[in-house]
UniProtKB/TrEMBL annotation:
GO biological process: cytoplasmic translation; translational elongation
InterPro entries: P1/P2_N_sf (IPR038716), Ribosomal_P1/P2 (IPR027534), Ribosomal_P1/P2_euk (IPR001859)
Keyword Secreted carried by entry: no
Function: Plays an important role in the elongation step of protein synthesis.
Residue spans of biased composition, Basic and acidic residues class: 85-95
Organism per entry: Simulium guianense
Name of the protein: Large ribosomal subunit protein P1
Coiled-coil segments: none
Record's GO cellular component terms: cytosolic large ribosomal subunit
The entry's keywords: Ribonucleoprotein, Ribosomal protein
Family: Belongs to the eukaryotic ribosomal protein P1/P2 family.
Renumbered residue ranges of the record's region Disordered: 66-110
CDD domains xref list: Ribosomal_P1
Amino acid sequence: MAKNELACVYAALILVDDDVAVTGEKIQTILKAANVDVEPYWPGLFAKALEGINVKDLITSIGSGAGSGPAAGPAAASAAAPAAAEKKEEAKKEESDNESDDDMGFGLFE
C-alpha cells in the first residue's frame, strides 16, 4: 500500500477513535502534525469515501461475512451434521453392495 494511502487510513482511524467527524481538513491536520506529506487530493478522497459510513461498526464486523465467523458456528455445525451422516450411510450402502458382488463372484479384481 502506498505511503499516501496508509497515512490517510491511520489519520481517519484516529479521528474515528476520538469520535470526531472525518473530513479532509481534519485528516490533513493530523498528517501535518505527524510531519507526513501526501498528495493534496488524498485527505479529501478518504473523507468522501468514509462519508455516511460507521467505521467502528465496519471494523467490528470484519470476518463475520456469510458462512464465516462465530455467528455462523452453531448453525453451520448443525446443518453439516445431517449431511455427514447421510454421506456415511451412502458409503455403507456402497460397501454392502460391493460385498454382495464379491459373494457372487463378480469382484473387480478376480
